[in-house]
Amino acid sequence: MRIKNTLVNLVYIWGSALLLLGLNLLTRRIFLDVLVVDYLGYDGLFSSIFSFLTLSEMGIAGIITYHMYSEIATNNTQQIRKLLYIYKMVYKIVGGFVLVAGIVACFFLPYILKEQMAGEDRLFIYTIYFLQLFATICTYFLAYRRILFVTHQKIYFCTMVDTVMSIAATLLKIFVLLKFQSYIGYLLVSIANNVISNLIIAWWSRKKYPEIARVKITKADIKELDLWHDVKNMMATKVAITIYGSSSDIIITAMLGVRMDGLVSNYGLISAKIQEFILSIFKALQASIGNLVYDDEEKKGIKFFKALDLVGFYMGLTAATGIVIVGQDFILWWLKKTEFQLPVSFLIVLSVNIFIAICNNPMNYFRNTFGHFGGDRNYMIAAAIVNIIISLMLTPLVGVTGVMIGTVVGHLLIYLGRTVVVYKYYIKEKPYGYYLKFLLRLIFLGVTVAIAGEISSLFYLEFLLGDILVKGIISVIISSLVFFVFNFRSEEFRTLMLYAKTIVEMILKKRRSRQ
């Protein structure tokens, strides 16, 4: 049943990711044709500011999700009701806080956007700021019931709703851009999409899970859940991750200007979509991981983890190599202007960050499933501090590449922390062997990029899209060969092949039953 649910989730998520990727690329192209790139910088900056404001959530959402996995595994409906009510209550409190804090934060915008706020754009900037603030608040008041679909392995329903609504919203955005050339209209469509999607999911969750009705809780119930112990540990992690993830836009805007932040967002969109597509595998497996951890299938779970870790390495290797080989050409084909290209050095460091992110995800999902939120707290804090220090030191010297170097170093520290927790509490081994393995994987990445780059240089097509496709295929082939040569004898690879065989047999059996 786990494999079946995972496959269903994966089909919906992948189908959605591919469709929305094409629409997002088209929308961004039209956006930059009719509006200025600075607007993308505003979007990134304000999103980062609101990420800081949502620290008031203190990581409680992640803690409650972790608790819900164990309650669903034992079918404890009453406890699930209590957890959902707390989740809802926390989100409403956070939404109210973000509203107030967002109003206060707007007074600091002139210190970050000095040139823009001094001119005629002042009213326009405040308008789009408050529209994005409203969109953020709506999420906290409406989105809490999604947790039921996630923890019950039914995330494909949320994906389906989000996909349909996103398609409609994207088409409407394109119309608004072409007809009215209005960024405010563009934001209003995004807000409507967010509100309607969450309302539909909330309505269906009440029909799908009627037993999870409203329940009143007391202080004794909250005390019994013992959430405060986890919150204390999670809060430091939450602060650190927020600083780590949201400081780059603010640093780039303050030191290099809002236009540079807009240019970075184009590369960020490509990076995010690649990761979204690849990491959807791990997202589809999240509830299965939770069930494995809490079903006392420890040996089976460890084997599954190691096989999944190998999948993360292969996908990270392929994605990072592809980014280096075709990234600059893709930007030129997509946006049609060389002025939208950033230095190759930035692209190389970005590819390393993508590699770390994808390799880290199996570790990340297992770590989030069984708690122990204080285990990697110090690593998270170190990642945030190191990221900011390196970014501030290197940006005046090497520009935007310096910010990305800070991001990569911080990301490595987060990865180390995740590994410590998983190996200590789940694998029950010292992680030093895994650290050596990851160092070798970084070397394999460098070798793969060098070989793929050398072979790609032998091919050149005047038709740019054809050139991109040829180089992309070469990067996939070389990545696959390097991966296979260095892993085909490992136990993890054999386990992975057994899972692949099971999936293929399941698909063939289902196909034969339909005939």
Automatic annotation (TrEMBL):
UniProt keyword annotations, A-Z:
Cell membrane, Membrane, Transmembrane, Transmembrane helix
- Source domain of life: Bacteria
User: Do you know which InterPro entries this protein is assigned to?
Assistant: Poly_Biosynth_Transport
Q: Does the keyword Ubl conjugation apply?
A: no
Where can this protein be found?
Answer: Cell membrane
Ranges in a coiled coil? none
Q: In its keyword annotation, does this UniProt entry include Nucleotide-binding?
A: no
Q: Which residues cross the membrane?
A: 7-26, 46-69, 90-111, 123-143, 155-177, 183-204, 310-334, 340-358, 379-398, 404-426, 438-462, 468-488
The way it spans or sits in the membrane comes to: Multi-pass membrane protein
What protein does this entry describe? Polysaccharide biosynthesis C-terminal domain-containing protein
